[in-house]
Predict the structure of Carboxypeptidase.
Amino acid sequence: MRKKLLIIVPFACFFLTVQAQKKTGGEPVPPKVAKPADNNQIIRLALDSSVTTSNAITIKGQRVPYNVTAGSIPVWDEQGKPLAGVFYTYYERSDVKDLSTRPLVISFNGGPGTSSVWMEIGYTGPRVLKIDDEGYPIQPYGLRDNPNSILDVADIVYVDPVNTGFSRPAEKDIPAATFFGVNADIRYLAGWISTFVTRYNRWASPKFLIGESYGTTRVSGLALELQNAQWMYLNGVILVSPTDLGINRNGPVDGALSLPYFAATAWYHKKLPGDLQSKDLTAVLPEVENFTVNELVPALSKGGSLPDADKNAIAAKMARYTGLSQQFILQNNLVILPMAFWKELLRDKGYTVGRLDSRYLGIDRMDAGTQPDYNAELSSWLHAFTPAINMYLREELHYKTDLKYYMFGPVHPWDRSNDNTGENLRQAMAQNPYLHVLVQSGYFDGACDYFNAKYNLWQIDAAGKLKGRLSWEGYRSGHMMYLRKEDLATANQHLREFILKAIPQAGTPAKY
């Protein structure tokens, strides 16, 4: 298969396109890396650069040829001066001629401060990292084809916000507030998306945003910002392991909503009483959800006025659903902080459970204490993803730069004020009858837990007028549910079905 390369000039601001020379056997000569002239030269991102290769994959028995472009497009200020280079990887099916009906999915991860690596080589892209069936690292590191990728039905661009991946400010003296905050992040990325869509002739295409974790905050705000500031209207927004989206849940609600997640984790680790443990997970959780909303929230609302008999009864039920002792729950006044749960659940066995995925186990210096020493799942994920993304971009896609690829980059302090992204998403849906929303949650995610994700949907659609365009799916894994082989297939299929459903029949007007 012939591969075309666009040579990158790492220290230039604009790109030069050439056809790569061929070696014997048809392999392209990789672009040369420009080396610093002396030790004082700063390694910079080429603000406007790209390299394109071609490949093919089999998805659901169908051969899907595609081009993948790795590069950087600038963020511009109002005077047309470049403020930053935003790195992206763009996958475009190459046997589709009419882009007006071809969906475009714009993909973000979260942090804030992490790149798009997780969903690119873990979830929806045509190449995924080699891990075991439950998501644990294996050696030798590497990648394989992803037969579940959504590339058969949609093109995908993975975007790394400033100071993640290879993305960097154009100059060191550009104010951090330009990029690092809830609303600043949304504003500049909306402008960048407009530039990308224009360059790649995608204005006619049905468009979707997908975000994971803090990326759900980002894409919820972008849905309205794209409409209001860029006059770009979406067909869908996908929230993978969503944050609270700026929706207020202080007090008793905040203290109660984690309980169903505790129950799911206790069920996984076989800490529930026999009658519950013998049931399937999805048969247990509705009972716990009902108790949370109809008994625990009212009890916490009463605070110190709650009679001792009632307090003991509530604590007994909580112990039944969480695998924790009634005494421990009473000592915490019926409010169990997630970090306390991660430390306490398996304390008697000498393990902690993971924050982002409570299937993972950790070992602390001491069994005593109030929280784990580290996040067991994140250490495991960085172990697997970091070598794979560096190998993929630099060796397989031939993007040549001496820049460090930031798995987590310097974006703090992050301005979290005026986070109204849940309301932004509601407004975008109200103003755009085409816009649909899908939420995907892992039952064992303790950072962005599944029941809080359901609560988001209830509050976004408090009037009940949007429920026909809102949907939720749960999976038997954690924050990155797609790392489990079974969920990788199921979750991608849910995306595929959502994308196709959210595209109206030709000629269908956007109106109520």
Q: What stands out?
A: The chain has two domains: 95-246+383-502, 254-373. The first strand starts at residue 49 and ends at 59. Confidence is low (pLDDT under 50) at residues 1-40. The domain at 95-246+383-502 is CATH 3.40.50.1820 (Rossmann fold).
